[in-house]
């Protein structure tokens, strides 16, 4: 059985965060302490002192990062832990708006639990179930990221994803399949498309990149 890893946001408070970690009812094998403001450092160091004497803890500084930059970096950490068989718990007890949004998005994408303190002790937040994406759609997103974020035509995307463009009859099936996947990805906010003359420019969104960080 894997370890339980807590990812904890800190803005200004330490005691309520530590209390929520104790009362949530899960063990703490490792902790990542996340902050984004210099004036949070005193509270961060207080939490780190309390945790480091008991478990492995690491401080992550996200100063100057926007929501999706924070999501991407969080998911890199989460993916490493998940690949080891570990479970992730996100703690938003003391999260500011940016960290709260980033934690919720990262928890949703990674199918992790998220919790916070309440009047009756810590409790988990309910989030919608993670939508499952097949390998083809993740591959499309990964290819777009690898091309710097976009391609200038659907034919170019087919060539990159499939390795080649087939002869006419098979090409029509290729194009229909790619169009279907792109329509679904765009509906989910993971890509955007723009018509440029005869060509369709296809670009991955920040949310789409987050899925690549976690699953690509």
Task: Please tell me about this protein's structure.
It contains eight helices and nine strands. With 216 residues, it is α/β, with parallel strands linked by helices. It has two domains: 4-124, Rossmann fold, CATH 3.40.50.10770; 135-215, Orthogonal Bundle (Arc Repressor Mutant, subunit A). A hairpin with a 2-residue loop joins strand 8 (191-196) and strand 9. Helix 3 (67-83) packs parallel to helix 8 and helix 6 crosses helix 7 (168-187). It is elongated and about 65 Å long. It starts with a strand and ends with a helix. The model has no long low-confidence stretch (mean pLDDT 94).
CATH topology of the largest domain: Rossmann fold
How many strand segments? Answer: 9
Supply the CATH superfamily name of the largest domain.
Answer: Hypothetical protein VC1899 like domain (Restriction endonuclease-like)
The biggest beta sheet reads: 6 strands, mixed
Q: Give the N-to-C terminal Cα separation.
A: 25 Å
Mean pLDDT: 94
Computed over alpha carbons, the radius of gyration is 21 Å
For this structure, what is the CATH class of the largest domain?
Answer: Alpha Beta
Structural class: alpha/beta
Count of discrete domains: 2
Strand order of the largest sheet: 3-2-1-4-5-6
Reading the helices and strands in chain order gives: EHEHEHEHEEHEHHEEH
Low-confidence segments:
none
Instruction: Please give the CATH architecture of the largest domain.
Output: 3-Layer(aba) Sandwich
Q: Report the β-strand fraction as a percent range.
A: 15-25%
């Amino acid at each position: 059985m894997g370890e339980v890893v807590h990812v904890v946001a800190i803005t200004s408070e330490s005691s309520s965060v530590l209390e929520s970690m104790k009362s949530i009812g899960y063990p703490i094998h490792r902790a990542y302490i996340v902050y984004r403001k210099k004036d949070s450092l005193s509270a961060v160091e207080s939490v780190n002192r309390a945790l480091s004497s008991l478990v492995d803890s690491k401080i992550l500084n996200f100063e100057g990062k926007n929501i999706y930059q924070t999501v991407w970096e969080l998911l890199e950490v989460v993916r490493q832990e998940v690949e080891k068989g570990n479970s992730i718990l996100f703690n938003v007890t003391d999260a500011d708006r940016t960290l709260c949004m980033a934690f919720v998005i990262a928890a949703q994408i990674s199918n992790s639990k998220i919790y916070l303190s309440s009047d009756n002790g810590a409790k988990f937040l309910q989030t919608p179930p993670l939508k499952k994406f097949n390998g083809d759609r993740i591959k499309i997103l990964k290819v777009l990221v690898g091309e710097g974020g976009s391609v200038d035509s659907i034919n170019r995307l087919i060539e990159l994803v499939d390795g080649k463009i087939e002869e006419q009859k098979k090409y029509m099936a290729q194009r229909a399949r790619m169009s279907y996947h792109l329509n679904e990805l765009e509906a989910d906010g993971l890509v955007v498309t723009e018509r440029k003359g005869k060509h369709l420019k296809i670009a991955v969104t920040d949310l789409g990149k987050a899925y690549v960080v976690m699953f690509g």
